[in-house]
Amino acid sequence: MTDINAFEQPNEAGFGDYVALLKPRVMSLVVFTAFVGILAAPVSVHPVVALAGILFIALGAGASGALNMWWDADIDAVMRRTMKRPVPSGRVQPGEALGLGLALSGIAVVMLGLATNMLAAGLLAFTIFFYAVVYSMWLKRSTPQNIVIGGAAGAFPPMIGWAVATGSVSIESAFMFALIFMWTPPHFWALALFMKEDYSNAGVPMLTVTHGRKSTRKHVLVYTLLLVPVAIGGAFTGIGGPIYLTTAVFLNAIFLRGAWQIWRRDETQAEADNYAVEKKVFRFSLYYLFLHFGAILAEAALKPYGIGGW
Question: A GO term (biological process) for this protein (predicted)?
């Protein structure tokens, strides 16, 4: 009689596991913001060049994700949010993740340079290095400011997209960088407030672990207050306009209200409703960034018709 267990291979990697190594949800944000960076630039880009730029930026983002999963496999294994990832679950071997990450890094940087320009390729190479080495290997495990400084890694894609189109860096691309950079801390700290035990168990010095939730709540409010003028101020750059200004004012009013509510709450209130406010603010923060960049995209799309821009 055939043993049916002989056909079960729970630890064998499938195609989906290798896709998961590339962090597709993070990649979607990278692709979208890089796409906006290309289209918002004041020059026309050949569709083939733009498509190649997006493809290789996406590969670079995926490479960063694979390298991060290789390095963080030990802490991913003890966090509920990450323990089912391909490497800690045993479906993908660490060496495979490392090899894939390095290979994709090389392909992405070289091909982006050949397809577009060396500035864009250099920025992509620095982004991969910053995320994989500076953030993952150093900052994440050594300082509660990990997500503040490390947020730069996620802020580079629109700047790279702008460089793909123009071959340069400008005030507009610096604004898009600053928007993501300032958004990252309150976004992640809202998550950390209801995921504190995960970071504590993994030994990651997230602000909630090192300074407590009360201090983290104050930081969420302070960084949101710093974010608001940056976000609204972008309306008065070359990629802004009335559509962006209206969107930014509306979204920042809601986000600031959420940060204020988080700051006013104590742990008794939060535990009583299972961190409902914190979870709501975290979810809204995702829409917040996509809608800001959507407004930039709308300004760029309507500008030829005399509608977008000032």
Answer: heme O biosynthetic process
Report whether 65 contacts 21 (CB < 8 A). Answer: yes
Q: 243 and 126 in one domain?
A: no
CB neighbours of residue 95 within 10 Å: 10
Q: Which stretches within the chain are classed as H helix?
A: 15-21, 24-40, 47-71, 73-76, 94-115, 118-129, 140-142, 146-155, 157-166, 171-194, 196-202, 207-210, 212-233, 242-264, 267-272, 276-302
Do 231 and 244 form a contact (C-beta atoms < 8 A)?
Answer: no
Task: Tell if the pTM clears 0.85, that is, is over it.
Answer: yes
- Mean pLDDT for 212-232 is 97
Q: Which of 169, 192, 222 is the last residue of a domain?
A: 169
Q: Are residues 165 and 236 in the same domain?
A: no
CA distance linking residue 197 with residue 275, whole number of Å: 13
Count CB neighbours of 156 within 10 A: 29
Give, for 90, the enclosing helix (H) or strand (E).
none
Compute CA 152 distance to the chain's CA centroid, rounded to the nearest angstrom: 9
**289 and 193 co-located in one domain:** yes
Long-range contacts at 138-141 (CB < 8 A, ≥ 24 apart): 140/72, 140/204, 141/75, 141/203, 141/204, 141/205
- Here the tokens at position 32 are 């979208």
- pLDDT tens per residue across span 44-63: 999 999 999 999 999 999 99
Contact 199/137 with Cβ under 8 angstroms? no
Q: Are residues 32 and 121 in the same domain?
A: yes
Quick one: 155 and 140 in the same domain? yes
